[in-house]
Amino acid sequence: MPEPRTTCFFRRIRFIAAWILLVSLVGTGVLIWLMADRLLTPRRRSHEPHHARILSNPTDFGLEIQPFSATAADGAILQAMLVAPSTRTGQAVKRRRMEERLGGRKIRGTVLMIHGRGGIKEDELAMTERFVAAGLRCVIYDTRAHGQSGGRFCTYGHLEVNDAIRVLETADKRFALDLQNEPVFAFGYSLGGAVAVQLLGQHGNRFAAAAVVAPFRDIGDIVAFSGERHSRGWLPGFFAPACVALAEARVGFNSEKIRPVTAALAIETPILIAHGEKDLVIPVSHGRSVFEAIPKATPKHWMPIADAYHGDVFLKGGDNLYQAMIEFWLNNS
Question: Which of 1, 52, 96, 200 is deepest in the core (most CB within 10 A)?
């Protein structure tokens, strides 16, 4: 006896619905995997023309550059540079301008600098021009999974905190800097700022003072914010937590421990935090939350940068921002 048409129709509907559900689940899984992969593996950048100009003639910019490498605890090779004031200077416009504000070329300390997500150490060369003007050496390096350094994944502080210590200790031994007997300062921008906050929470006794620009307060919060911003709000709420959870599973870190706002509770090192008031990548509320979490007994300074977004915060802050950071370091050394 032939099957009733209505029964056949509903069976087809159920079959189609099952396939739609399966395709949706697979598509969702693929999208979450891609988001997690993007979170863990930032695009690596190479040198750009303005980097090459400095690297080819560092003395023209008032710099002396010595490359070196450090080995992380997991074996990853971290490419780094020690940048010091050059005794022979060319035009060195930025250095001379800052020297007029601060004066002096005598070595007053060493700055460990940590770049942001997707950045490279060479991005910080322009900053070092200002810092060497105050007699500060700079240790710059490609963080893991960035630039020329090894490491498959970026872990947002899980491994980067100890990497920073390895780089600093290697520079000390390689160049006989004697960092035990002179001030060491910390600097970080964006992701590097978040790592610097975690670094101070765990190894604050190694640093005389710190300056941090545009840090995020919590890995889960910033992933959710970024996902909503890039998708213009169409991603369901579970995507960001699922992305972070998958990243945890792939790398083996605990996202609950990647919370600069919690690390800030243990900071006793004097710290300046600057943040662009119009930052659309890491909202200024993140930097303010980290600042507020730092104990009141700790010397701290909040410096909002008016009309500044994320990528132009140093441009908008200008020499006033650089001078504020340098003076904060030296006044707390």
Answer: 200
3-state secondary structure at position 108: coil
pLDDT tens-digit profile of 9-64? 556 666 666 666 555 555 555 666 677 778 888 899 888 898 999 999 999 898 99
| Residue ranges of domains in the chain | 1-40+234-254, 45-218+258-331
Q: What is the pTM of this model?
A: 0.88
**8 class by beta-carbon count within 10 Å (0-12 exposed, 13-18 middle, 19+ buried):** exposed
Q: CA–CA separation, 275 vs 225, rounded Å?
A: 17
Contact assessment for residue 190 and residue 283, using Cβ atoms and an 8 Å cutoff: no
Indicate the pairing of strand 109-114 with strand 184-189.
parallel
Which fold would CATH assign to domain 45-218+258-331? Rossmann fold (3.40.50)
Spatial distance between the Cα atoms of 51 and 83, rounded to a whole number of angstroms: 14
